[in-house]
Amino acid sequence: MKTKQKHNGLTLTETTIVVAIVAMMAFFGLPAIKTFFNSIGTPGGVKSMINASLSSARAIAAREQKYAGIRFQKDTDDNQYMIFIVHDPDPTVSVNRFTAVKNVKPVKLPENLAVMVYNVPSGTSATDINDTAFNFSAEPQWDTDATTFSIIFSPSGKLTLHEVKAMPAIAADQIFNNLVTVNAGNANFYQDDGVIPGIDAEQSYTSFIVYEKKELEKAETTGQPYDNYLQNLKLNFINAYTGSIIKTD
Length: 249
Hints:
The chain is α+β, with helices and mostly antiparallel strands. It has two domains: about 10-40; about 45-235, no CATH class. Helix content is about 30%, strand content about 20%. The chain is built from six helices and 13 strands. Strands 1, 2, 3, 4, 8, 9, 10 and 11 form an eight-stranded mixed sheet that branches. Strands 5-12-13 form a three-stranded antiparallel sheet. A two-stranded antiparallel ribbon has the order 6-7. A hairpin with a 5-residue loop joins strand 8 and strand 9 (about 160). The protein is globular and about 75 Å long. The N and C termini lie far apart (about 75 Å).
């Protein structure tokens, strides 16, 4: 009695069909992949990145049962990052000290875009940062202050206002700072401990705008970036309970 031999693997015909299907998926998928990568460099793409980071920061606050959030700030090359921070009080330094979350790398935003906070007082075109009138012509100080801010969640995961003094836990903290530049006396990321340019402790924020660097540079040449560009940008608010950006479209 003859027994049937069992063949493992694919026949030539089956292999050809599989290769054809994969090729078709790759062909039709390329536009979608290209669209995805292009979208990262758009305001909408940046907001998606921020939403994901806010969700992670909210989870960190609940897990650690501490105030936690994300810190927006630029490095010395004008690249902006989101750094995950957590409340780490030290009475000898500051009861409102926040340090970078261990083993969590900063998230770099697209080079052509950045995030800023501002509050425009009624009846004036000047930007107000932490109740201090700001002069747009005082570069780079106003830009540094406006693009360096924090969004904080309470241990229960609710968006909250909290004073933040962002500092490295130790001098060799390579998440918050670059070790080489720290040893040279300069921080890679601006921080709140007196390192030049030195940003004072400040209240966290609950809204922000996304702007294009080149467009802001054009407006700055006139000396009136608020009147010419910033006032036309949409202010993005964060839902206090979900921790996500509120959709206004």
